[in-house]
C-alpha cells in the first residue's frame, strides 16, 4: 500500500509483495489521538469485525480530527486522509469483488460511517488481469 504523509492510496490497498492484489482483502485502521496504526493485509476469513485484527504494518503519526463525522475522508483520486478520521475508533478497508474499496467504521450501524470509492476501470482491469 502506498502512503504519502497522512494519506493512503486506496488503489494500492490490497497490494501484496510479489503477488497480485487480494480481492476481498482487508486492512484494519486503529485510530488514536496522535497516530493511526495500519494493519497488514489479510483475507476476509481471517480479518474483519468480530473476526480478528491483522498484525500492524505501519504507524502514521498525526493529529486526528474527526472530520469523517460530516464528510467522506476519501478524495476523488482515491486517497484516504487518515487525519480526517475520528480518534479512538476502528476502521476497516476492503477491496470488493466489484472493483471498489469499502471503508467502514467498526461502530457503523450499516448506514452511517461507511464510504465507497469505485476504482477506475483501467486500474480494476489491471488488478483482475494481472
Query: Describe the biggest sheet?
Result: 6 strands, antiparallel
- What overall form do the CA principal axes indicate? globular
Q: How helical, in percent, are the residues? A: under 10%
Strand order of the largest sheet: 5-4-3-7-8-9
| Average pLDDT figure | 89
For the terminal residues, how far apart are their CA atoms? Answer: 17 Å
- DSSP summary: helix tally: 1
| Tally of structural domains | 1
Write the H/E string, N to C. EEEEEEEEEH
**Structural class based on helices, strands and sheet pairing:** mainly beta
Estimate what percentage of residues fall within beta strands.
25-35%
Oligomer state equals single chain
Gyration radius from CA atoms, angstroms: 14 Å
Low-confidence stretches: none
Number of β-strand runs: 9
Q: Describe it for me?
A:
- By secondary structure, the protein is mainly beta.
- Helix content is 7%, strand content 33%.
- It contains one helix and nine strands.
- The chain is globular.
- The two termini are 17 Å apart.
- The model has no long low-confidence stretch (mean pLDDT 89).
Write a concise keyword list for the protein shown above.
three-stranded antiparallel β-sheet; six-stranded antiparallel β-sheet; globular; mainly beta; 130 residues
